[in-house]
Amino acid sequence: MPRDYYEVLEVGRTASADEVKRAFKKAAKKYHPDLNQGDPAAETKFKEASEAYDVLSDDEKRRIYDQFGHEGLRGRGVAPDFTSAHVQDIFEQLFGGGFGDLFGGRRRAGPRRGTDLELPMRITFMEAAHGTTKVVQVPRRIQCGTCSGSGLKAGASVATCATCGGHGQVVSSQGFLRIRTTCPTCRGQGRTIKPDDRCPTCSGAGKVRETSQLEVRIPAGSYPSLQIRHSGAGEAGDPGAPPGDLYVTIDVEPHEVFARDGADVHVTVPVPYEVMALGGKIQVPTVHGEEELHVRSGTASGHVHVLRNRGVEVVRGRGQRGDEHVRLVVDVPTSVSEEESELLRKLGELRGSGVREKGFWENLLGKLGGH
Predict the structure, then answer these.
(1) Which of 198, 206, 195, 166 is nearest to 183 (CA)?
(2) Span 318-364, pLDDT tens digits
(3) pTM (whole model) above 0.85
C-alpha cells in the first residue's frame, strides 16, 4: 500500500497549493537520483514525492484522494502518472526549462520556429453578429531573400560558437545541482557569424521587416476576446523551421439598442400604454431586421418575450442561433394634448387612481385671492 501522500511531502491535509509545491521542491532536491547515485532508497523516495505531488497539485485528483484514498484514484481511472517524462515536465514548470538536465534530458537543439504575433481588432456589434471580412496590415519579420535566412554574405561560412563550443547550451551549477540553459551568445544554434561575413541586407539576422496585407474573415457570432488563428502568418523561423502564427484578437463595440449574452440578444422596447392594456401588434428590432410581435392585453411593464432563434449565430455551431429577449416597458409620453389629458383624467377617475385635477394651482390661487 502506498504511503499517505501528505505524509510523503510532510504537509498537513489543509496545505495550500503553494505549500505543496514548496514541499515537493524540497523533497525533489533532496532525493533526486542524480544527487544520490547508487542509493535505491533515495530513488524510491523521489518517486513517492513525485507521485504525491502529481495528486496533491491537481484539484480533482486531490478531492478524490481526500474522500476515497488510493483505491478511489485507481477506481476512477485517475491514478497518478510519475513516469520520468511526466516528472521532467513537472520539474521544468517548477524550476525552469534548464532543470530538465537533471533527468538526462536536453533542450531540443535545432532551428527555432518563428514567433507568434497578435493583432487586436475592434469591430462593430453588427459586424460581430453577421460576420465580415477585413483587410489588415501586418508588420512582421520575414526570411531575408538575399541570404535565404542564413545571415551570411555570399561565399562566407559560419563559425563555431566560442561560448558553448557548438553545443547550443551552457551548464551552470547551483550547489549540487547542474542546470543546463540555452547559450545566450548563439541562442542555441551552436554557431555564430563573424561581423565581416554578415549578409549586407539583413546584417546577419537572416530576417528583414516588412508590412504585408492580410484578409481576415471574421465569423458570424464573433465575441470579445475571440482569437482567429492564421497559420504561418507570424514571423519567420530559423532556416528549416516553420514560421509562427498570427492571432487576431476580436473586440466588439457596444450597440446603442442591443446587448449580448453569449449568442442571446437582449433589447428593451417601449410600448404605448393602450397597447399594453388592450393588446395589439408592434414592430420590434432584431439583429436580422424588424419583426412583428403580438402584445397580449394586460401585459405588465417589464414583461420579457422570447423570440426563438433570432439571436446571433454560435461560432462553430453549424448554423445554431441564440434567442432574442424582448423586454416590453410602458412608453410614458413626455407631453400630451388637451384632448389626451382629458381622456386620461377620466380614465383615472374611473379607476380611482387619484389623477391631479386640471388647473389645481389656478383654482387654489383664485380662492386665496377671493379672500
Answers:
(1) 166
(2) 889 999 999 999 998 888 888 888 888 888 788 777 666 655 444 54
(3) no
Q: Is the pLDDT of residue 216 over 60?
A: yes
C-alpha grid cell for residue 37?
547515485
Grid coordinates belonging to 294: 403580438
Instruction: Please report the pLDDT score of residue 174 as a whole number.
Output: 56
Can you tell me the distance from the alpha carbon of 172 to that of 179, in angstroms, rounded to the nearest whole number? 5
Q: Are strands 117-123 and 246-252 parallel, antiparallel or unpaired?
A: parallel
Strand, helix or coil for residue 319: coil
| Cell 481588432 sits on residue | 121
Q: How far apart are CA 99 and CA 107, in angstroms?
A: 10
363's CB contacts (< 8 A; 6+ apart) are: 357
Contacts of 57 (CB under 8 A, 6+ apart): 17, 20, 21, 24
Residue type, 154: A
Amino acid at 246: L
On whether the CB atoms of residues 305 and 282 are closer than 8 A, the answer is no
What was the pLDDT predicted at 211?
94
